[in-house]
Amino acid sequence: MTDLAISTHALTKTYGRLVAVNNLNLQVAAGEVFGFLGPNGAGKSTTLRMLLTLISPTQGEIVVFGKNLWKYRNEILRQVGSIIEKPDFYLYLSAYDNLKIQAQMCGIHPTRKQLEAMFELVGLSGREHDKVKTYSHGMKQRLGLAQALIHNPKLIILDEPTTGLDPQGIIDLRSLILRMKNEKGITVLLSSHILSEIELIADSMAILSSGKVMVQGRVRDLLNPEDMVVAVEPCDTYTCLAALQNSMWSTRITSVTETAVMMRMSKGQLPELNRYLAENRVAMYGISFKRALEDYFLKLTASGNA
Amino acid sequence: MLNLIGIELYKILKKPRTYIGFAAIAIIVLVVELSFYADGKQYLDFVLQSLRQHFVIQGEILNGSLMCFVILQMLIVQMPLLVALVAGDLISGEASTGTVRMLLSKPYTRSQIFFAKYVAGSVYTFALILWLGALALGIGIALFGTGDLLVLKSDELVVIKAEDVWWRFSAALLMAFVSLSVVTSFSLMLSCFSDNSITPIVATMSVIIIFTIIGALEIPMLEKFKSLLFTTHMVIWRNFFDNPLPMRQIVSSVVILLGHIVLFLIIAHRHFVRKDILN
Fold first, then answer.
1. Residue B148, domain member (yes or no)
2. Which of A54, A74, A92 is the closest to B107 by Cβ?
3. In a domain, B278, yes or no
4. Which residues of B touch A56 (CB under 8 A)?
5. Which of B7, B101, B274 sits opposite A88 (nearest CB)?
6. How far is B105 from chain A (nearest CA, A)?
7. Which H or E run includes B177?
8. How many A/B residue pairs have CB atoms within 8 Å?
9. CATH code for the structural domain at A228-301
């Protein structure tokens, strides 16, 4: 059995009548990058804040490294690094002082060399003695990561860590996360509302909506190319529908709109469908396809932001 | 815990606003002492004119002790603002910059963090009082020398011998510290309920002004209520320049001030350890 870094049992948080997190059962294996996905307001941040004891749950239990979080709070938090929403600093202090304070708050007293090595790791060498208020957003994000890593945590919780980063910054962050996982075996819990971001980096993921886990599992299983949502956009829907209904493709149709026929199939069947439609002289504007989970998530995000 | 207090003190030391109070005190003390040095004698002669008709006053009345007493009288009223400036920011300042998230997800209990902040705030308050006393007395002695302290009250004249002056000033400053600790705990309490540092500072000053006005009103109905206001007891330091010392009054004021400190800390702590960090 895989060791679990985090598991939640029936975790619930309510504010009056509003249910922010509803009966959440989450399992994050040790040493993996876990993507926590959901549209805005899905309950991701509330869950992450409960994992850091910033918010107390209304109900349920959180177990981290096999121990109850509220019972062994200090012992557990000593092994956790985090960035919630955005990295926070004392702007009137230098980056060096901020990092030193952060380390001391975690009970360690790093040497100058150790601190400098950390600045080197996140690419801030030479700017460590500047006041943080002079830093750009990207530099603050890097410093935030240094803060999360300075005490050699076993678990890192990152809430939307790529927000505001430039493309190079996103690539650097991604490679740093993978390095931490591969070289140090650190578990990373990463929240995002961008599926493609999670797909590139995570081993497992969960999709949250309205405080509930909708899907949870291994990324490679969930984002399976064998299960595609295909949108056929014909010039004339009726002609297209007639051609499809008299064939083996009829069972693949999931819905029909004025402009498209929606179908489900594996990626490998797409050329075959294309050929069939051409042979039956069905004129088309195009065929587009998405993986089923991607399609589901996009719909979720659209309704969440509406 | 000591580690945490050290960190909190370091943060206070590095904040520019910390030095506003020290600078303001230094400027006011210098202005007052130099003004008295320039033409204080004439002013004092004018004030003592009526007294000289009944008493023979020998020796140098205008001395370091008198200057220190005068400055304490003047500045002790403004000190709550300087204290609130730092104490009101201790928790709300962290909330407004977001560092409260970082702070409260560290392996320290919220109670430890709360009391570390209170201790650091108290150290700042004590340093401010010490700075005021040392500067007022130090510059006063340097410019005017030492001597007996003549305290002119509304209904009596108290003469305190030079050898008695030191312990009375020490006790008065300690008492002023207890008084200002009420302001520290009050500001800290308001700081726990706010997400910006301006509100606790303004609210602290507003409450002090309102209580001081109520305290000055001569309305019989308010008499009993007035004795419960902490502002009524904040001027108790002056009693250390009475002869004999009104010990009963001093002890009763200390008990009321300490009661306020405990009450404000209990309310603040209760809220701080339970609140959800949503911002």
1. yes
2. A74
3. no
4. 274, 276
5. B101
6. 5
7. helix B162-192
8. 73
9. 3.30.70
Burial of residue A254 (CB within 10 Å: 0-12, 13-18, 19+) is exposed
| Domain limits for position B107 | 2-273
Is residue B75 within a helix (H) or strand (E), and if so which, with residue range? helix B64-75
Q: What does the alpha-carbon distance between residue A87 and residue A269 come to, in Å, rounded to a whole number?
A: 46
Q: What is the pTM of this model?
A: 0.81
Residues carrying CATH 3.40.50.300, chain A: 4-222
Interface touch A90/B97, C-beta < 8 Å? yes
**Class of the domain covering A4-222:** alpha beta
- B15 to A49: CB separation less than 8 angstroms, yes or no: no
Tokens linked to B37: 């040095």
Predicted confidence at residue B208, as pLDDT, reads: 87
Q: How far is B104 from chain A (nearest CA, A)?
A: 7
What is the β-pairing status of strands A187-192 and A33-37?
parallel
Q: pLDDT tens across A146-164, in order? A: 888 888 899 999 888 877 7
Residue B279 falls within a domain, yes or no?
Answer: no
Domain with CATH 3.30.70 in chain A: 228-301
Over 70: is that where the pLDDT of B270 sits? yes
CB contact (8 A) between residue B274 and residue A56: yes
Specify the pLDDT at position A121. 83
Q: How many domains does chain B have?
A: 1
B-chain residue closest to A15, CA distance: B276
ipTM over 0.85: no
Tell me the C-alpha distance between B267 and B183, whole Å: 14
Q: Cα–Cα distance between B76 and B186 in angstroms, integer?
A: 17
Pairing of strands A4-15, A59-64: antiparallel
B197 vs A contacts (CB less than 8 Å): none
Q: Three-state secondary structure along B211-276?
A: HHHHHHCCCHHHHHHHCCCHHHHCCHHHHHHCCCCCHHHHHHHHHHHHHHHHHHHHHHHHHHHHCC
Q: How many residues does chain B have?
A: 279
